[in-house]
């Protein structure tokens, strides 16, 4: 009798453990350590689809949030349909940033200009702003991006880059600690902005966007629920 109880207990634990693993598989939120670096003039770095979006049989999910109030939640199913929810912008002055997902390519620096060439296996690239003021745009699956960062005093500002699987670029003035990116409030001297941000594709489409925070992601369709 005692052995039967032990066996039943083990079976129950295994069932609960399996259920927990299945639940976790549907709700994967990655929390990677970001390692920024400043691109040197003429330096070329490569990037490819990596661990920032974790795949499973249900598709994938990526959640981003910051202490200054900005954030979003992206889900992508196995057919490439994108669903964006919980889209929030920072209300005060802050470092502009862009995240680029679901693609591979290269990133380089020519003088003060950051140049990104990206290609996705999906039908399109979608670009949306966390500020909600700009409508989302779609591009061909092969794009080129030009980005210039400046301080609020119009001085050179590095675009700090992390390319661990995806591209994450933040405009942060020189001699400012990267920890300031995660502060709830930002001083003027710690703020960098995108003074020029352009995206163009192989079909000849060219769009120039205002300063702000953006996401560029490969997919087959996009739905944003604000």
Question: How does this model look, in words?
Answer:
- The chain has 226 residues and is mainly beta.
- The chain has two domains: 1-28; 31-224, no CATH class.
- 11% of the residues lie in helices and 44% in strands.
- It is built from one helix and 18 strands.
- The strands form three sheets. Strands 1-13-14-7-17-10-11 form a seven-stranded mixed sheet, with no helix packed on it. A six-stranded antiparallel sheet has the order 2-8-9-12-15-16, with no helix packed on it. A five-stranded mixed sheet has the order 3-4-5-6-18, with no helix packed on it.
- A hairpin with a 5-residue loop joins strand 4 and strand 5 (71-76).
- The N and C termini lie far apart (57 Å).
Layout: helices, strands, pairs:
Layout: H1 2-26, E1 37-38, E2 44-47, E3 54-56, E4 59-65, E5 71-76, E6 81-88, E7 97-101, E8 104-110, E9 113-119, E10 124-129, E11 137-139, E12 142-151, E13 159-162, E14 167-171, E15 192-201, E16 206-208, E17 214-219, E18 221-224
Parallel strand pairs: 6-18, 7-17
Antiparallel strand pairs: 1-13, 2-8, 3-4, 4-5, 5-6, 7-14, 8-9, 9-12, 10-11, 10-17, 12-15, 13-14, 15-16
């Amino acid at each position: 009798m005692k052995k039967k109880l032990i066996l039943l207990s083990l079976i129950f634990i295994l069932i609960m453990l399996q259920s927990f693993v299945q639940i976790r598989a549907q709700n994967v939120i990655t929390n990677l350590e970001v390692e920024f670096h400043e691109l040197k003039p003429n330096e070329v770095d490569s990037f490819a689809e990596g661990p920032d979006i974790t795949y499973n049989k249900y598709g994938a999910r990526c959640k981003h949030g910051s202490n200054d109030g900005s954030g979003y939640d992206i889900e992508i199913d196995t057919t490439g349909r994108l669903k964006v929810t919980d889209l929030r912008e920072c209300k005060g002055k802050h470092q502009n940033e862009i995240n680029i997902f679901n693609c591979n390519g290269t990133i380089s620096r020519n003088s003060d200009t950051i140049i990104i060439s990206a290609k996705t296996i999906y039908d399109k690239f979608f670009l949306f702003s966390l500020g909600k003021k700009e409508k989302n745009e779609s591009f061909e699956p092969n794009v080129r991006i030009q980005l210039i960062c400046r301080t609020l005093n119009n001085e050179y500002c590095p675009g700090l880059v992390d390319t661990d699987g995806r591209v994450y670029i933040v405009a942060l003035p020189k001699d400012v600690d990267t920890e300031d990116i995660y502060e709830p409030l930002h001083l003027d001297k710690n703020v960098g902005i995108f003074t020029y941000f352009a995206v163009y594709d192989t079909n000849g489409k060219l769009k120039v966007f205002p300063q702000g925070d953006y996401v560029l992601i490969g997919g087959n369709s996009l739905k944003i629920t604000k």
